[in-house]
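Data availability (excerpt). The following record was deposited with the supplementary files.
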Amino acid sequence: MITDPFQRLGLDREVLTVSQLNQRARHLLEDVFPQVWVEGEISNLARPSSGHVYFTLKDAGAQVRCALFRSSAARVRQALRDGLAVKVRGKVSLFEGRGDYQMILDTVEPAGDGALRLAFEALKDKLAAEGLFAAEGKRTLPAHPQRIGIVSSPSGAVIRDIISVFRRRAPQVELTLVPTAVQGRDATPQIVRALELADHQGFDALILARGGGSLEDLWCFNEEAVARAIAACQTPIVSAVGHETDVSIADFVADVRAPTPSAAAELLAPDSSDLQRRLDSLQRRLTLRMQHLLEARRMQLDGLRRRLRHPGERLRQQAQRLDDLELRLQRAMARRLQSASEQLARLDARLTAQHPERLLVLLRQRLEHLRQRLPRAMHTRLRERRQQLEATVQTLQVVSPLATLGRGYSILLDDRGRAVRRAADTVPGQRLSAKLHEGELALRVEASSVTPATLELPL
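Predicted structure:
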């Protein structure tokens, strides 16, 4: 265990790059948490084409990223999905590329007994607060028992294992089976009655035993009624429920917990040889000493192995970075496609608004409107032109020479048809014609005078 990781890294003297900081943080996490079990719920599950699996493990208050590489993912039998409650095992590490805290997993197991475990912990806390687990209330097992009561099922291997141990180690001890169901709906009241009955039979000790099973199978030994029945017994009780890794409320309330039914029998079966017991004790001490020594050497070896960076570790880091980039690319492509789809929808709407058929409809409507206006416009224009023509005709009639002729005047024309305006332009004997209002006259000039003539109009 690292007591002062900052002193070990020399952070008070060294300026690190970001890569060096992330690398040393990863080494520190992997040194402190080389292997840990964590339970939670899967979310944000991702399976890139590389075969690796990434997800977030969360509970009500926190979350942690998890990476399950392809070789480990192939061993997972459970179909992983979002919302699945699981128990995972692995080392705590750091993805150096992003500086993300994460777990590198090697095992994923379903955790379907979460509600039962919550009930287990709630009852455990309640009974502990009442003092049912207190060490001062525990009774000492007899050194040389003569009569042992066994509260268990009459069928199965448990009772045979216990009898076998007593026959081998202490055949003189009298064994009495107090039968009861150890699983199912009726097991709890039967166990309570069996304990009450056995407590009044004068046994030196009792063994409460059952073979291994799931948490649901062992649940009758986690019931409050069974726990209070064990606490009420005056006879010392050894609890031997399930395998060595199974823990029940009955184990906490009983005077002694044995890892297995056979171990419970060994606790109560006196050995015939003190030397054998001493040898067993020395052997256990030696085994423990060797285990501690081997564990220390293993931890030292693991530390050296982690410091020696294996190429596979770097490949996994790069593979994880590649998977991260692949996921980012997929999200970017999805956003790009979404944007293109929205733009296409807008263009389609604009194209629909400008469709030729709609324009033709508008043009037809305009043409129909113009067709209806044309006759009215033509009639109005003709009336205006007619009125203009009549006004012009009247004006022309006012200034027309013919109108002048109508008032008694005439026009003299020479033989070339030119109007004669002055007397000086004529010679005596010249032939002229006079244009009258009605008809014309042939004239011959007798004499001419340049004196302006005066015209007297009749009154």
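Summary of structural features: The mean pLDDT is 83.
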